[in-house]
What we know:
Blueprint: H1 4-20, E1 29-30, E2 33-34, H2 37-57, H3 62-71, H4 74-78
Antiparallel strand pairs: 1-2
Helix pairs in contact: 1-2, 2-3
Amino acid sequence: MSTKLEREEYEELHRYLKYTLHELPAGVLYGASGASEKECSELMEATYRLEELSKLIGEDLSDFLALCRWHGNPPIFDAL
């Protein structure tokens, strides 16, 4: 069972990660600019948190999370 705060965090992270991908195929955004290597690492961490929250809430985001992780810059993410 999830709390209201977990639901809000889930919605915020989901919305933000969708935003980071809206410029594809040009690149992954971080704020208004392209994501750096460090920022890609932070985005990858966000995908793991969103995965935890989605399980608590009972939402299946596996396809979306796979898309985020694949487009986030695989060589950087593979090193994590």
